[in-house]
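FORM 7B: Structural annotation worksheet

SECTION A. Query
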Amino acid sequence: MYRRILVPLEHSDYDDAILAHVRDLAQLCASTVVLIHVADGWAARNQRELALRESDEMKKDREYIESRADALAKLGIAVECVLAGGDPGTEIAAAAEREGCDLVAMSTHGHRGLQDLIRGSVANNVRHNTTVPVLLVRGTPRRLHPS
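SECTION B. Predicted structure
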């Protein structure tokens, strides 16, 4: 059904929800999971144009997605990692096409109304800028999980 699933990670508690869902889906469909993190600091947004070295932020982001990839690989799931820089919605939509993915699976915060206007919605940007199906799973920060 799904050969390649693109999973944007934001390096936060919200990643747990989508990874749990995608883990089961990938095992069921024998899919390759492509993890992407879009670093959006100044150095990340300007790295290519200014030929900058990888910033500390980007190094930490790379370590993070590689650690999440290792956890999936231990379960027998084929995993690839992509670290991008720039506008998250734009980069995720572009990566879905470039990486040949047939599903984008991402976690959402569940902002509504004014919060979406103030903070923007990466998920909304992605769904408007790709023809690849988008699966949205509502995430919950760990601090709100019952103990």
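SECTION C. Observations
The mean pLDDT is 83. The chain has one domain: 4-138.

SECTION D. Sign-off
Analyst initials: ____
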